[in-house]
Amino acid sequence: MLELEENLNTKIKGIIDYLTVQKSSKVPTGLSGIIPSNTKLNNIEIDNKIVTLDFSNELLNVNEEIEERIIEAITYSLINLDGIEGVIIKIDGNLLTN
């Protein structure tokens, strides 16, 4: 079980890197990330197929429309992973709410 969780953590970190502006050289030309480049992923927890991501507050240094797109991009990307059925996002330890 621990190996499966470590594998998921690695995949999740990779997805977040792809979604981060200019952080990954693996993003195809013409595409760009959506998460602000100075955002830090503080923690990842997986419990009962729910992943909780704790980001730094830089994640929200965007307008409301972009914030919604960021949350959608993270959520839709991660729920496509085997073993993940839901996503909870926190900012510096506090649950992100609308």
Q: Compute the gyration radius: what is it?
A: 13 Å
User: Which spans of ≥5 residues are poorly predicted at pLDDT below 50?
Assistant: none
Span between termini: 34 Å
The major beta sheet can be summarized as:
4 strands, mixed
Quaternary structure annotation: single chain
What general form does the structure show? globular
Structural category is: alpha+beta
Query: How do the helices and strands follow one another from N- to C-terminus?
Result: HEEHEE
In spatial order, strands of the major sheet run 1-2-3-4
What is the strand tally?
4
Describe this structure in words.
This protein is of the alpha+beta class and 98 residues long. The protein contains two helices and four strands, in the order αββαββ. The protein has helices at residues 2-19, 64-78; strands spanning 41-47, 50-55, 86-91, 94-95. It has a four-stranded mixed sheet with strand order 1-2-3-4, covered by helices on one side. α1 (2-19) runs antiparallel to α2. The longest helix has 18 residues, at 2-19. The chain is globular and about 30 Å long. The model has no long low-confidence stretch (mean pLDDT 87).
Characteristics of this structure?
about 100 residues, alpha+beta, 4-stranded mixed β-sheet, 2 helices, 4 strands
